[in-house]
Specification:
- The protein is of the alpha/beta class.
- The chain has 2 domains: about 5-45 and about 320-440, Aspartate Aminotransferase, domain 1, CATH 3.90.1150.10; about 70-315, Type I PLP-dependent aspartate aminotransferase-like (Major domain) (Aspartate Aminotransferase, domain 2, 3-Layer(aba) Sandwich).
- It is about 45% helix and about 10% strand.
- It has 16 helices and 12 strands.
- The strands form 3 sheets. Strands 2-8-7-6-5-3-4 form a 7-stranded mixed β-sheet, with helices on both faces. A 3-stranded antiparallel β-sheet has the order 9-10-12, covered by helices on one side.
- Mean pLDDT is about 95; it is low at about 440-445.
Amino acid sequence: MHIDQASIAELQAALAKYQQQHQQLVARKLNLDLTRGKPSTEQLNLSDKMQSILVGEHTDPNGVDLRNYGGIDGIASAKNLFGEILGLAEEDRSTRVLVGGNSSLSLMHYTLWFAYYLGLKPGDTSWAQQEKNNNSITRFICPCPGYDRHFSLCSQLGIEMIPVSLTGHGPDMDEVESLIKADPSIKGIWCVPRFSNPTGEVYSDETVTRIAKLGKMAGDNFFVLWDNAYAVHTLNNDAQSLASIDKIAKSLGTLDSIIQFGSTSKITFASAGIGYMASSEANIKGFIQHFGKASIGPDKSNQMRHVKLLKDLANVQQHMAKHAKIITPKFAAVKKSLEENIGGTGMGDWNNPNGGYFVSFNTRPGLAKKVISLAAEAGVKLTPAGATYPEGNDPQDTNIRIAPTYPELDDVEAAMAVLVNCVLLASIEQKLVSQTNNQVSVDLTNCT
């Protein structure tokens, strides 16, 4: 049944059916969580041998004692490994990569904090000072739907966020370029370029090139914050590759405006992985100068453990194929449930990603909060409605982020049964109210 072609009688019968099913689901007292994109226990087990991989070893290949202070930018072999993942030429990795602790989010936080209060590198005027000088406010472009933690970082510093639509190939670059040319107070743009959170799209080569050029048209101290969190997280062989923004920016002379981030949080251990970043040599030097006030060096033993386990990009890809084998059936279960229950009904649309950790589902306008509330009644937790937009404000109230990786397959299937029933129930209820109101309006018009 397509919702826009159904009669009031058909809608009423369907509503009764899905209300009854909802009550049956509530009675099951499920307790399922699809809120965050976490690796499952089976995925974490893939890296267990890393815990004993350094037994009796205390130095890296360069003779650095891994147990001691120092090396704030990370050990050389880790910089080489993660620089390769981020697409840097081998000769650039020693000076343009920083390998830190277990969180890329921390590196993003420090980057914003340094740029806002201190200026990222020597000679940069801080964003806060520019606000005073120009009687302005710092602004950031935020492609949406996007990653809620990026938005939280901006919100914490009082940075105004400007939502820009995603096109399926990355941000709407006509809008991005127009905004940046018109407003020098825009100091950055957030990007999750491969398997975007939550839409799963991969930025096209044209989009990557246009983003690499933004530093030429933006105001002073503008940064592309390139969170390549899912650089190697493919689900199948059809996954689209991502152009190297580092290579393009290097050819354009815009490396100072590009800051890449990544981590192994969904490659090895979520709580004991490695966060890393890459930028121009000047930016990395500036970051180290500031960061040295807050740190005496990262966990170099953990970095060495990762190097010994992962070795190089080719081995990382083999390791990630094992992850894909575990989680692909879960994504398939989501797809199957949506296609069989929502497909052709006009009650929602969704992406079918070839990588990453999420499925992005869009309800009819005005229903995301309602669907999530109904799902909660039936024991299924979903990311709060609006979380994929700045300040939690989804203007159409449509987007729901589904994170199927952590639960067991049976639980994913159970959670999807709840979700699709809630979508059907909320959609039909909304349509029935609209149809009934329209009928009343027509009757009243005829009376006059």
